Amino acid sequence: MEITAQKKDKLLSVIQSDFPIVSRPFKVLADSVGLTERKVMSSIISLKEEGIIRTFGPVFEASRLGYVSTLIAAKVDTERIADIAAIMLDINEITHNYLRDNEFNLWFTITARNSEIKGDIINRIKKFSGVKEVLNLPARKVFKINAVWGLGKSKNSNVDNKTESPPLNESEKSLVKLLQNEFPVVENPFKILSGSIHRDESEIMDTINLWMNNDIIRRFGARLNHKKIGYTYNILAAWQGKGLVLCGNKFAELTQVSHCYLREPHKNWPYELYTMIHAKSDSEADNILETMRSIAHRLKMIKLNTLYELKKTSMKYFMED
């Protein structure tokens, strides 16, 4: 028997940001949404099969694991985009890649073990046939990173202001690697995980809770395919002018804004404040942008619609070891 649309929405809400790190988490979820534990587990499995849930598990903060990341904007000849996008599919450090309606038409993220690897990838991209110009746009300040949809609880990020984390030991790295696999949808998932790395169930849960408290893990739960739940309009709005920090803090409070950063400007690309906006219709997107313009009435804004999602994967950490 299918669950009601209301219970489905509630389940999707809590599994994005309120997943309990306890011995029987699906039982706790079931109690909170008014379903049986078995029905919650079968519903999550179905949602994964339908592609509504992309992945399930922790969202790690790259910088807290010692990794470096950046956003790249490239000006690419139209006839070369498909070939370059295909090559990028095999570059593990490139996790997201989008085609947008601007002369800088290819926008992608790089997350790498160190700056040397990141630089090598950027230089490799520059040498691709058809690449006219490449902008490296590293983040200077993070206001928000949280792609939580619908009723899920959004959380602003101050990770760039946190004290530096000590390097993880080999046992901790093993747990990170394990958690990057598909999370087992069973009654006692952490007990199943404990058998894989010979650590106690309680020790694993304590470590995950510690990592969530110090932002090594930004959140633990489901990552949804936003298009599958109606958020088909994906817009990058970039801003320039004075008062960017104040506007960034205000933009981060908007639920429709999933990402908000200050990034390095360039001579021929002066924008510094970047916001990702998600909406279910063109008119809804316009209303969000109007709200943002009223907040930042002195700032100049450029709107870049996302035309195609060319790559979207989760970073796999410590796989080089």
Spell out the blueprint of helices and strands:
Layout: H1 5-17, H2 25-33, H3 37-49, E1 53-60, E2 68-76, H4 81-88, E3 94-100, E4 106-112, H5 115-126, E5 131-137, E6 139-145, H6 170-179, H7 189-197, H8 201-213, E7 217-224, E8 233-240, H9 244-252, E9 257-263, E10 273-279, H10 282-295, E11 300-312
Antiparallel strand pairs: 1-7, 2-4, 2-5, 3-4, 3-11, 6-9, 8-10, 8-11, 9-10
Helix pairs in contact: 2-3, 7-8
What does this structure look like?
The strands form two sheets. A nine-stranded antiparallel β-sheet has the order 5-2-4-3-11-8-10-9-6. The N and C termini lie far apart (46 Å). The protein has two domains: 5-50 and 172-214, Arc Repressor Mutant, subunit A, CATH 1.10.10; 65-149 and 227-312, Alpha-Beta Plaits (2-Layer Sandwich), CATH 3.30.70. With 321 residues, it is α+β, with helices and mostly antiparallel strands. It has helices at 5-17, 25-33, 37-49, 81-88, 115-126, 170-179, 189-197, 201-213, 244-252, 282-295, and strands at 53-60, 68-76, 94-100, 106-112, 131-137, 139-145, 217-224, 233-240, 257-263, 273-279, 300-312.
Please summarize the sheet with the most strands. 9 strands, antiparallel
Give the CATH level 1 class of the largest domain: Alpha Beta
The count of domains is 2
Helix content: 25-40%
How much of the sequence lies in strands comes to 25-35%
Number of strands: 11
Counting DSSP H or I runs of 4 or more residues, the number of helices is 10
CATH architecture of the largest domain: 2-Layer Sandwich
Largest sheet, spatial ordering of strands: 5-2-4-3-11-8-10-9-6
Sketch the topology as an H/E string, one letter per element: HHHEEHEEHEEHHHEEHEEHE
Instruction: Label the structural class.
Output: alpha+beta
Could you list the spans in which at least 5 consecutive residues all have pLDDT below 50?
A: none
Terminal residue distance: 46 Å
CATH topology of the largest domain: Alpha-Beta Plaits
**Shape designation:** globular
The average pLDDT score comes to 92
Q: Any idea what the radius of gyration is?
A: 20 Å
